[in-house]
Amino acid sequence: MESGMASHNMQAVGYMPGFGNDFETEALPGALPQGQNSPQKCPYGLYAEQLSGTAFTAPRGQNERSWCYRIRPSVRHVGRFAAIELPHWKSAPNIVPGVASLGQYRWNPVPHGAGELTWLTGMRTVTTAGDVNTQTGMASHVYLVTASMVDSYFYSADGELLVVPQEGRLRFATELGVIEIAPGEIAVLPRGLVYRVEVIDGPCRGFVCENYGQPFALPDRGPIGANCMANPRDFKTPVAAFEDRETPSTLTIKWCGQFHQSAIPHSPLDVVAWHGNYAPYKYDLSTYSPVGAILFDHPDPSIFTVLTARSEIPGTANIDFVLFRERWLVAEHSFRPPWYHKNVMSELMGNIYGEYDAKPDGFAPGGMSLHNCMLPHGPDRNAFEKASNAALKPEKLDKTMSFMFETRFPQHLTDWAAREAPMQSDYADCWDGLDKKFDGSIDPA
User: Fold this and answer.
1) What's the topology of domain 286-428?
2) What is the pLDDT of residues 236-279, one digit of tens each?
3) Which residues are catalytic?
4) Domain boundaries, the chain
5) Which residues pair with 123 in a beta bridge?
6) Class level of CATH domain 15-32+40-99+113-285
C-alpha cells in the first residue's frame, strides 16, 4: 500500500516501481475499500468507477483495468460537446494529395517560434499510419510547449501516448497521480486517462508516438533470459493524488481523429484512491541495459527494443519503441554501425542528444528522419568510410541517445511535415558518395 498526500492543488509526487503490476494507492487513509471493488457505500462518500483499457474478456495476462474511488463519477466531468479545431494534430488515415511519402526524409529541429503554445495547440503531427477508426497503426508528433494548461484538461479516446522529451521538463497531472519527466525519460499516458500538462522548465520540445493499437508491453527476451534490456523495476507509476477544486474548466476529448470540448465547473482530477494495472508510467532511459554483439556482426536493431505494441501477427509489431543509447562496440572483423537494409517496417527516428553513429552529420538533437517501408537506407558515406577503415579496438559510443518509432504500416507525411517543417531537401544526397568499389580481378583472400 502506497500513500500520497492529499492536496487541494495536487502537488504530491511519488512513484511505485514495476511494469504492469497490480498497484494500490490512496491519498487519504482508508479511502481504498478492501475485500471488494464496489461496496454499497465507499469511504469518504466517494464513488467507485472502473477504467478499462482492454475488453472485459481479454486474457488475464493482457487484461488491463483500474478501480477508481473519486469525488464525482466521470459522467459529471463531461457536459454537452462542441467540436473544436486543432489543425496541426492529425490522425490516420491522412493521405494528402500532392505529398509524396515515398522517399527518405530528414528534418532539422523544429524551432519554437513566437507565441504561447500549450500541449494541445503545440502538437504537430509528422506522420500517420494505419487507421484510427479500426484501432490499428499510429501517428508520430512533435510537441512545442511554452505554457501550462490552466483549468484545462484532455484525454484521448483514440490511443495511448508515448512521450519522449528532448528539451525542457513537463508535469502531467493525471487522474491517477502526477508524473514529471525530463529529457532522457519517457512517459506513457493510457487511452482514456484525463490529465493536464504543465511546464516545469521551458520551452519544451519532444516527440510523441500515438499508439492506436494494443497497449505497449515489454518485449519477450527469448534466450536473453530474465535480465537486461528494460527491467520492470525501473518503470514508475505515480501514487494517488487528487484535486478538489470548484472552478470553471474545460475538458477536451480526441475521438476518432476529431476534437470535442465540454465545459465543466470543477477539476476532473478527483481520484482519491485507486487499484489496478491500467495507469500511466514513466521510465528513465539511462536504466536501459543494451545487449549486443560481443564477437562479430551487428545484430538486428530489434535487440534495442524498449517497448512493443503487438499486432495480431505473431512477431510483427504494430509499433516498436527502439533506443540507441551509449554502449560499447567490440565486434571483431565486422562493420559495426547498422548495415544497409530495406525492410517491411517503417522507421521514424528522433535524436534526443549527441550523434547517431550511422549519421554523424546533419542529424541534430531535436531532429528526425523517416525511412518508409521497403525503401533502402543505411550509413552515409562518411560513416561507411570511417567504419570500414577503423582499427577494431573496443570503442565506447558515448553521449548519444536516439530512438525509433517503428511500425508495420507505411507512414504518410502530413502537409505540415512536407511543407512547413524544416525538411532537409538534400538529405538523400548523403548516399551519393558511395562509389563503386568492386574489382573482379582481385582475390579477396
Assistant:
1) Jelly Rolls (2.60.120)
2) 999 999 999 999 999 999 999 999 999 999 999 999 999 999 99
3) 298
4) 15-32+40-99+113-285, 286-428
5) 143
6) mainly beta
